[in-house]
Structures are given as structure tokens and as C-alpha cells.
């Protein structure tokens, strides 16, 4: 079974080397929608694949990090990067171009790591990330699957290569979230007292 949770954010970027002149030479923004699809072949104690409420924590923080932020490719012009960091409190440096395709891959890599490091406490069984869809516009989106996220031909994405500004981190529920994720520290879901047995 699949479940889907939709997130939204506003973000700015330049997509260097793309075919569209406006997109490759000018800072511009989009109203993004990100769909996170989880799958499992069994249900938890609440008879859910994964409680949507649990996705409002760390997973939401990661996606919300991009809201009202400028995102840039870490290989872009150093002066452009410096000015982006100087004039925006919210910025994110990524090891690939900030296209819709790469956003889908970035979110897949981070959310997959979160789920793998999460200690489930409510009978969840074999919950895994199925795919991530990043809508850049009303008519265009990219969908990343595991084989895309791990595809070196599309550019390697390592957690330690994603750099978030101090302002972004300060707004997370846990400002050390990415450090803990990189270190492999567990995220523990809350214990749930069962009201109905069976």
C-alpha cells in the first residue's frame, strides 16, 4: 500500500546550464509542492502505513528548510554564492544543480536516511520510501525513485554535502538534526499506549 503526504514551499534558484535562457541566467522562484510517498505491506497498530502526524516532524523540517530560501549549486560562481549567503539569512548549498529533478533526489536521500534512522514504536512494519515527487510548476514535476537517488550518473548526493544556513537550522525543532542524521543517531518515535487490543 502507498500513502502520500503533500508539502509546500516557496524557493529561489538559478538552474545553470539548462536550455532556458531565463532560468540559467536569472534568479527566480517557484511555488513548490513535494509529495512524499511511503509504502508498506503491513499496517501499524493504528492500522496505518505510517501516521501522517509523524511526518510533521523531522521530514517536514527538512522540506520546510527550503521555504523562503535561496538554493544554489556549490560549484556555481563563488561571488554569486558569497552574495547569496550575505543577503539571504536562509540559504542552502547543494552538490547538484537545484532543478526539480535534483530536488526530488535530494529529498529522497534525506527522507530515506531519516526513515532508516527512525526507531518505530507503534508496530510499523517494513515502511520504506517509495518515491518523491517535486512539482516545480503546475504543469511540471520530477519523480525520483531509489534507483534515481543512488544513481552516480545523475550526481552523487551525500548528506554531508548539503549545507544549511544557521538561520535555517535555528528554525528546526532540533537545530542539530542534520548533524545527528549524518552521525547515524536514532530518531525515536513516541510510545503509543494501545487503547484497543487485537
From TrEMBL:
Gene3D superfamilies named among the record's database cross-references: 6-pyruvoyl tetrahydropterin synthase/QueD
Record bears the keyword Metal-binding: yes
Keyword terms, alphabetized: Lyase, Metal-binding, Zinc
InterPro entries: 6-PTP_synth/QueD, 6-PTP_synth/QueD_sf
EC category: lyase
Record field: catalytic activity: 7,8-dihydroneopterin 3'-triphosphate + H2O = 6-carboxy-5,6,7,8-tetrahydropterin + triphosphate + acetaldehyde + 2 H(+)
Pathway: Purine metabolism; 7-cyano-7-deazaguanine biosynthesis
Membrane-traversing stretches: none
Family per record: Belongs to the PTPS family. QueD subfamily.
Protein name per the record: 6-carboxy-5,6,7,8-tetrahydropterin synthase
Amino acid at each position: 500500500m502507498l500513502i502520500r503526504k503533500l508539502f509546500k514551499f516557496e524557493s529561489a534558484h538559478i538552474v545553470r546550464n539548462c536550455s532556458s535562457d531565463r532560468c540559467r541566467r536569472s534568479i527566480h522562484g517557484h511555488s513548490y509542492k513535494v509529495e512524499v510517498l511511503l509504502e508498506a505491506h503491513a499496517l501499524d497498530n493504528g492500522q496505518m502505513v505510517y501516521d501522517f502526524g509523524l511526518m510533521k516532524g523531522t521530514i517536514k523540517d527538512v522540506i520546510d528548510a527550503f521555504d523562503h530560501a535561496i538554493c544554489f549549486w556549490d560549484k556555481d560562481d563563488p561571488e554569486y554564492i558569497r552574495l547569496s549567503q550575505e543577503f539571504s539569512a536562509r540559504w542552502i548549498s547543494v552538490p547538484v544543480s537545484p532543478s526539480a529533478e535534483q530536488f526530488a533526489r535530494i529529498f529522497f536521500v534525506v527522507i530515506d536516511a531519516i526513515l532508516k534512522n527512525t526507531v518505530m514504536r507503534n508496530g510499523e512494519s517494513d515502511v520504506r520510501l517509495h518515491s518523491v515527487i517535486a512539482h516545480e510548476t503546475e504543469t511540471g514535476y520530477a519523480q525520483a525513485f531509489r534507483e534515481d537517488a543512488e544513481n552516480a550518473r545523475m550526481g552523487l548526493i551525500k548528506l554531508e554535502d548539503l549545507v544549511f544556513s544557521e538561520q535555517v537550522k535555528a528554525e528546526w525543532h532540533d537545530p542539530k538534526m542534520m548533524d545527528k542524521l549524518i552521525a547515524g543517531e536514532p530518531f525515536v518515535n513516541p510510545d503509543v499506549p494501545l487503547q484497543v487490543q487485537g
